[in-house]
Write a structure and sequence with these properties.
By secondary structure, the protein is α/β, with parallel strands linked by helices. It folds into 2 domains: 5-120, Response regulator (Rossmann fold, 3-Layer(aba) Sandwich); 130-236, OB fold (Dihydrolipoamide Acetyltransferase, E2P), CATH 2.40.50.40. The chain contains 6 helices and 17 strands. The strands form 5 sheets. The chain has a 5-stranded parallel β-sheet, sandwiched between helices. The radius of gyration is 21 Å and the shape is elongated. The relative contact order is 0.10.
Length: 247
């Protein structure tokens, strides 16, 4: 990246825009080129300019930040800044790069800037070994990739099963969202609702024509798969003990 990322701030509260301006001054990679107090003002700005980044409030008088989606240039990245943790699922479904809660924490903002720089870097972006998952109470759950056993859908959320943790982490993220974040050479989606980390598998047991049971390293938990999902997994497994696996 040779020049600062042109950035638009969209928020109806002047104090919030001011705080974000002050925090972003610590990041010379960011260049604020405009501000808007509403979706309508943001749309007018986008008619003449194409920012690389939009810091976008969720709830504003006259419309939600989500309504800006059809008007954003394809390459523009969105970071939602909101006081409402319950909107995280909608934000990531929108395709947001990140989701910050007000008042914005400077250290958390620095993580967001790193993600932006990775997306706009001329070099291939390194794979992050830790993914920040928005929890159901607005907290951020830090999940190291090496700890993941499998991920499965749960209503509008996902459950993340990890080594040495009997309790799955409930995240405001879809399976499709996880698929876009995880390195494709290390994780395999075996159906609409499940993603598995093959390197964490201990044994795959075929118990019937229609059911396969997967056991994992560092965990007593087991995952049952149907035949189609088991066959997808089998094609990706290398160097794994597959005694009794699907023939």
């Amino acid at each position: 990246m040779n020049s600062p990322l042109k950035t638009l701030i969209v928020d109806d509260e002047p104090d919030v825009r001011q705080r974000l301006r002050v925090l972003l001054r610590a990041h010379p990679e960011i260049q604020i080129v405009g501000e808007a107090a509403s979706v309508a003002q943001a749309r007018a700005f986008l008619q003449d300019q194409t920012p690389a980044v939009v810091f976008l409030d969720m709830e504003m008088p006259g419309g939600s930040g989500l309504e800006l989606q059809p008007h954003l240039p394809k390459k523009t990245r969105t970071v939602f800044v909101t006081a409402y943790p319950d909107y995280a699922h909608n934000a990531f479904h929108f395709g947001a790069l990140d989701y910050l809660l007000k008042p914005v924490d400077p250290d958390r903002l620095a993580v967001t800037i790193e993600r932006l720089l990775e997306r706009y870097s001329d070099a291939p972006a390194p794979v992050s070994e830790v993914i920040d998952c928005p929890g159901i109470a607005g907290q951020i759950v830090r999940i190291p990739l090496a700890e993941i056993l499998w991920i499965e859908s749960h209503q509008n959320y996902t459950l993340v099963y990890r080594k040495d943790d009997p309790q799955a982490s409930l995240c405001r993220q879809t399976v499709a969202g996880w698929e876009s974040l995880l390195p494709a050479d290390r994780f395999v989606k075996v159906g609409r609702s499940k993603i598995i980390h093959p390197a964490s598998i201990r044994i795959v047991r075929w118990t019937s024509r229609l059911k396969t049971v997967v056991s994992f390293l560092g965990s007593d938990q087991e995952l049952q798969l149907g035949r189609a999902a088991a066959l997808r997994l089998k094609t990706h497994m290398k160097g794994i003990d597959t005694r009794g696996s699907v023939p």
